[in-house]
Design goal:
362 residues, 5-stranded mixed β-sheet, 11 strands, binds calcium ion, globular, single chain, alpha/beta
């Protein structure tokens, strides 16, 4: 056995341990009908032509088609084309479609604890989140939460650190957040609420008009790439960083469990590998395109890119702790997943301090 063969056996064993799958058999192995073509549908939570986020599922489907030699064909539908964006989870759960692409905080109303598999204000960034998911038991917890719905999840990318959002007034103290009508989803919205603000839920397509007309005072969206695409720089002057509320939002591949179980083992393996490849592509694409779009923003005279003052960050961090503790009292699963997330984070933190944090201080 060559070094490469040994390495790929180890990788395979790790993937199987992480995903709880059966040993895959190679295409053409006993019991596999290699002539059978599976035609699956995949719905997403993103608008058509949405950069990176909607390109990623299309890339995933293409990879699966190539690797399976056309035995698994996946047709991708953007949000609203087959089902509304916020009904993706239900569509996969009910078996109307086999696959979905989104982020777990969209299902907070149904599964509050799912938010830990999306992002946590002042929580871990991409590398910590993915260390937890792939190696620290996170993925198993995630799948336990979704099991009653007949759904499985696999990580399929991360947005990286987001931006803090667009404001029409300067944020100089936490008092400036009082009464502020701001579009901010998930746990970040709950933190804003506790800090005296007024979080508003609104889809991306509505943001520009709402901000420009003053229906909302501020909004976060993603980062320079997507924010410029919506033209938010023409509706507000101050662009704050960092996105304390979304430090590393994980994207998810949702799979209908019954349909997954009907898939031959080699095709299951291909789906897992395509998801892993798409994950790498997504995060690196976000870093690349955001860095380029930021340069474009710096060149715009009507935009000021500003950091949240340290005092505001510290107060929001304290309010976040209170918010998470209060949410944990309302839901036992939230409490259990929060404890697991915190335990992993505490064990990971010293390594993070000696590496990325130490370098950031240079
Ligand atoms: Ca966001």
């Amino acid at each position: 056995m060559t070094i490469l063969q040994r390495a790929s056996c180890v990788l395979l064993a790790l993937l199987l341990a992480a995903c709880g799958g059966d040993a895959p058999r190679v295409a053409g192995g006993e019991g596999i009908d290699t002539g059978k073509i599976y035609r699956w549908k995949m719905v997403t939570t993103w608008p058509a032509n949405f950069p990176v986020f909607q390109e990623a599922p299309e890339l995933f489907a293409e990879q699966v088609r190539i690797m399976s030699n056309g035995r698994l064909e996946i047709k991708v539908f953007a949000g609203g084309e087959l089902v509304p964006a916020l009904q993706v989870f239900d569509a996969v759960s009910q078996g109307a479609v086999e696959l979905g692409h989104g982020s777990a905080y969209y299902w907070a109303g149904k599964v509050p604890a799912a938010q830990f598999f999306s992002t946590v204000p002042f929580g871990m960034e991409q590398k910590g989140v993915e260390a937890w998911l792939y190696h620290g038991g996170g993925l198993e917890l995630w799948n336990e939460l979704y099991e009653p719905f007949g759904v499985m999840a696999l990580p399929i990318g991360n947005t990286g650190v987001q931006m803090g959002g667009w404001f029409n007034k300067k944020i100089e103290s936490i008092a400036d957040l009082k009464g502020l009508r701001m579009r901010v989803p998930g746990l970040g919205g709950k933190v804003l609420d506790r800090a005296g603000g007024n979080p508003i839920l609104m889809s991306g397509g509505e943001l520009y008009t709402a901000l420009e007309r003053g229906t909302i005072d501020a909004t976060e969206w993603v980062g320079p790439l997507h924010d410029l695409r919506l033209g938010l720089n023409r509706a507000a002057r101050y662009y704050y960083y960092p996105g304390w509320h979304e430090p590393g939002t994980e994207l998810e591949l949702l799979i209908n469990t019954a349909r997954w179980n009907s898939l031959p083992a080699d095709l299951q393996h291909i789906v897992k590998q395509a998801a892993a490849a798409t994950s790498t592509w997504t995060f690196s694409a976000m870093e690349y395109h955001n860095s380029r779009a930021l340069k474009e923003l710096f060149a715009k005279k009507n935009v000021e890119v500003l950091p949240f003052p340290q005092e505001v960050m510290e107060e929001l961090r304290a309010v976040t702790r209170q918010t998470l503790a209060s949410e944990a009292e309302k839901d036992p699963d939230f409490k259990r997943v929060y404890a697991a997330y915190q335990a992993f984070r505490e064990s990971y933190q010293p390594w993070h301090e000696l590496t990325s944090r130490a370098l950031a201080r240079e």
